[in-house]
Amino acid sequence: MQSKDLLQLAEQFGSPLYVYDAEKIKSQYNRLTKAFSKVEKLRINYAMKALSNVSILQLLRELGSCLDAVSIQEVQLGLHAGYSPDQIFFTPNGVSLEEIEEVHALGVQINIDNLSILEQFGTKHPTVPVCIRINPHVMAGGNENISVGHIDSKFGISVHQLPHLVRIVENTNMNIVGIHMHTGSDILDIEVFLYAAEILFDAARNFKNLEFLDFGSGFKVPYKKDDIETDIEELGKKLSKRFNAFCDEYGKELTLIFEPGKFLVSEAGYFLAKVNVVKQTTSTVFAGIDSGFNHLIRPMFYGSQHHIENISNPKGKERFYSVVGYICETDTFASNRRIQEIAEGDILCFRNAGAYCYSMSSNYNSRYKPAEVLWINGEGHLIRAHETFEDLLKNQIPLPESVTKQ
């Protein structure tokens, strides 16, 4: 997308504003499928927790994607977006047996990540196809909050508990059709990923009726110029060869599944915010915008970096600014960052705002959530309206006067 297009959208729909580029989502999807074109059966389950707007789900469905859902509500959103139950994969963590039963009743594939629920569900539903999430105890990910395959992680069944797991399956005569792992997000070293894959292959040998292996995702995307990223093409070449060899050994053509979220939508997203005030202190120049961590929490939560540019003054001389929000807490998006000279009223653009940005937004300080726009075929389409005061009151129930006046 061009800066002039983003400026036009900010003027048309107001700020703050999320904008998603459909062409970038398409190119990322095609890049991933091309990298694994040597695999006979490949399935992409988009991790919808990254960005769950129904219009985005519909776009990915048209590209051929299926869904990875982590809650009953995400399952329901997927069905609402036109996915059939067999196109949705349910990979929860720490949910109740009741929620798993509810998803099962919808006909969706279930992935179980703890021994307790596995035994309970298997005892009641021994013929239902089930996938098992393994924790390979491989540390991968760019931050401790997004590294989920290590030994202290709450995710998955420890690979060291495999004998116990196998005993439960044999005792219940469960129908295990898939094995799953996810080491973490922002994977840099594909050799670590390949090492974890070998652990998954070893675990898979314990089950004779598998239909698929799910390798999770966590592919890193670049956040700034010349930033390193997961080499998808190299991973595709190496893992495809190894996966095909395992299928020959297993005696069956299995489906290879990935569940990318950030990889598909991160670079497609732009977050636009207006500068309310430029504030000079004794040591810092602050650019205060009409947003805060209620709209984009990742820099404060993960320490993530989002490239920021002043699209109102793209050719301006660069100066050092600390970009901050209007929340009544410290909400710093960038400290002493080189940005084109900023004036009050300018529009700043945050890159890589497609994944885990709007989906983690809130109404903290009773602020409204922003609108979302999809840029497709050279036009901006509003896919979520800016919230209003009525939205803040929607589910609130005032006490009757007879109670408040006591």
Low-confidence stretches: 141-150
| CATH level 4 superfamily of the largest domain | Alanine racemase
Instruction: Please identify the structural class as seen in this structure.
Output: alpha/beta
DSSP strand count: 18
Rounded to the nearest angstrom, the radius of gyration is 23 Å
- What assembly state would you assign to the polypeptide chains in this entry? single chain
Protein name: Diaminopimelate decarboxylase
Function: Specifically catalyzes the decarboxylation of meso-diaminopimelate (meso-DAP) to L-lysine.
GO molecular function, one term: diaminopimelate decarboxylase activity
Domain Orn/DAP/Arg decarboxylase 2 N-terminal: 23-266
Secondary structure: elements and pairs:
Elements: H1 3-13, E1 17-21, H2 22-35, E2 42-47, H3 54-63, E3 66-69, H4 72-80, E4 88-90, H5 97-105, E5 109-112, H6 115-124, E6 129-135, E7 157-158, H7 162-172, E8 175-180, H8 190-204, E9 212-214, H9 232-250, E10 255-258, H10 262-265, E11 269-280, E12 285-289, H11 298-301, E13 308-310, E14 318-324, E15 332-340, E16 347-350, E17 371-376, E18 379-384, H12 389-393, H13 401-404
Parallel strand pairs: 1-17, 2-3, 2-10, 3-4, 4-5, 5-6, 6-7, 6-8, 8-9, 9-10, 12-14
Antiparallel strand pairs: 1-11, 11-12, 11-16, 13-16, 14-15, 17-18
Helix pairs in contact: 2-3, 2-9, 6-7, 8-9
